[in-house]
TrEMBL record:
<comment type="similarity">
    <text>Belongs to the MLP family.</text>
</comment>
<dbReference type="InterPro" id="IPR052006">
    <property type="entry name" value="MLP-like"/>
</dbReference>
<dbReference type="InterPro" id="IPR023393">
    <property type="entry name" value="START-like_dom_sf"/>
</dbReference>
<dbReference type="InterPro" id="IPR000916">
    <property type="entry name" value="Bet_v_I/MLP"/>
</dbReference>
<feature type="domain" description="Bet v I/Major latex protein">
    <location>
        <begin position="2"/>
        <end position="152"/>
    </location>
</feature>
<protein>
    <recommendedName>
        <fullName>Bet v I/Major latex protein domain-containing protein</fullName>
    </recommendedName>
</protein>
<dbReference type="Pfam" id="PF00407">
    <property type="entry name" value="Bet_v_1"/>
</dbReference>
């Protein structure tokens, strides 16, 4: 049984891709007010939510339980509407050595759009399940953000 793996989820969005991506670049600090499965978020290190060197503390509801972790934005690619994050510490480190998240907002040729999230992970041992609960969390969050932006 492999300790490392990759999972992806892609969900359609109705918000224009540039507007959807922009919320990650300019309103990341507000996600606990937008996403139903994010009860708490705050800066841990640094003074700006939207730069690559800041570390944030998050509480996420995954599989019905609060999960505490830290997150650091590793890369922002505005041209390709993508971002890379590193999740670490807290409850997450009880099960995963590595947990990297890649997000991309995709504009399709037919005018539709989607948000794709890929998780690269390494479990601490074979008894740990792949992070399927996190994929459900990401799917719900994609929809919450889209719904919020459509109302704005």
């Amino acid at each position: 049984m492999a300790l490392s793996g990759k999972l992806s989820i892609e969900a359609p969005i109705q918000t224009p891709p540039a507007k959807y991506f922009n919320i990650f670049v300019t309103q990341f600090h507000n996600f606990q007010n937008i996403c139903s499965k994010i009860p708490e978020a705050k800066i841990h290190e640094g003074d700006n939510w939207h730069v690559t060197h800041s570390v944030k503390n998050w509480t996420l509801i995954v599989d019905g339980k609060p999960i505490k972790l830290k997150e650091k934005m590793e890369k922002i690619d505005k041209e390709n509407k993508s971002m890379t994050y590193k999740f670490f510490d807290g409850d997450l480190s009880k099960n995963y050595k590595v947990f990297n998240v890649f997000l991309q907002v995709i504009e399709k040729n037919d005018g539709s759009a989607s948000c794709k999230i890929t998780v690269d992970y390494e479990k601490i041992n074979e008894n740990v399940e792949a992070p399927y609960g996190f994929m459900e969390f990401f799917d719900k969050s994609i929809k919450d953000i889209d719904s919020h932006l459509l109302k704005a």
